[in-house]
Write a structure and sequence with these properties.
three-stranded mixed sheet, 77% helix, mainly alpha, 342 residues
């Protein structure tokens, strides 16, 4: 236990440049977080309540949205509360927990995208074997794989980080990330195991990326043969491909920054680069899938029409009730008028 740190809390110094406009930033962030929750929860409930959407592609999509809720909840509530405080600190345990949630959320996203790519590959390239392979049991196994793999990997990462003796408490960001905690380790601390697990994690998820590229190579070759397959690709694969490209661009830009860590960037830009994975994909993904997937789009339109019809019926009933009440009052006044005159 000699290597265990006696640090009990960290200072999040990335808020220094936000203190002058923290009230408008708080209002905007709260609205943005509520919109993320609304869109993702709505999509999950829509898939859960509609039996026509109980298909593998939509089950994976609901898992994707649940992961978004999980990841953003690990960041936004703490960020919002820090904006209202004069000093921004986080406990040692809370910092490790936030680092675990953020990293597992990112890698779970990539795992789900890989599973979704495999599902589209089977549906379009191997349609005759799709239903025999994609059984309920296989579906549950793939969902568990996409969740348990990143959770287990980053549980090991955070456990190794917790064993380091730290010689600093200043984290120059608005949230805790694992590599920043490791950078606070004392010079004599052994970070070899942390580096090994970090490289192993990179290899595992780079292999996920190569697997997705392999599936899309076959998908594009197959869909180029017929117009029907091209339409199927545009309807079901294009939203997934858009989410994937967004994810790769965001993670790629973040990885380049972490590797080289440009010192010329302002503190606000550094913070944005760190949290962009929690800003762009969580808001874009439910909108992309909601507007592009035909079944979900039709279901949303049906619900809107039903709501509009229900509102019209309520308004009509209210109008009729008000007319009846006005007639009743007039009759009452006419009947009571002779007696009032006496």
């Amino acid at each position: 236990m000699d290597n265990v740190s006696n640090v009990r809390s960290f200072i999040l110094s990335g808020f220094n440049e936000t203190m002058n406009f923290r009230v408008p930033l708080f209002a905007f962030t709260l609205l943005y977080y509520c919109m993320i929750l609304f869109f993702n929860i709505s999509l999950v409930l829509l898939i859960f309540l509609d039996e026509n959407l109980h298909e593998p592609m939509y089950i994976f999509l609901s898992s994707f949205c649940i992961n978004t809720i999980y990841g953003t909840t690990g960041f936004y509530p703490k960020f919002l509360s820090d904006l209202l405080r004069s000093s921004q600190t986080i406990s040692y345990e809370g910092c490790l927990l936030q680092a675990f949630v953020i990293y597992s959320f990112v890698c779970c996203d990539l795992s789900i995208l890989a599973v979704m790519a495999f599902d589209r590959y089977l549906a379009i390239c191997r349609p005759l074997h799709y239903h025999s392979f994609m059984t309920k049991r296989r579906l549950s196994q793939l969902v568990c794989f996409s969740w348990l793999t990143p959770l287990c990997i980053f549980a090991i990462n955070v456990l190794l980080t917790s064993r380091l003796k730290l010689c600093g408490i200043n984290i120059r960001r608005v949230l805790c990330v694992n590599w920043l905690i490791v950078k606070l380790a004392c010079p004599e601390a052994d970070t070899f195991s942390n580096n090994i697990t970090a490289y192993a994690t990179v290899i595992i998820y780079v292999s996920h990326g190569f697997f997705i590229m392999w599936t899309y190579t076959h998908l594009i070759k197959t869909c180029a043969r017929s117009r029907e397959d091209r339409e199927k690709f545009m309807q079901t694969c294009l939203p997934h491909l858009t989410s994937l490209i967004t994810f790769i661009v965001v993670i790629g830009f973040q990885s380049i920054y972490v590797q080289f860590e440009y010192t010329g960037f302002s503190e606000s830009l550094k913070n944005f680069i760190t949290v962009e994975i929690l800003i762009i994909p969580p808001f874009m993904n439910p909108l992309i899938y909601g507007f592009k997937l035909t079944k979900i789009q039709n279901r949303i339109l049906t619900l809107l029409k039903s709501y509009k019809k229900l509102t019209y019926i309520k308004f009509s009933l209210l109008k009729k009730t008000s007319v009846k009440c006005s007639i009743f009052l007039r009759v009452k006044n006419l009947l009571c008028e002779p007696f009032c005159c006496r």
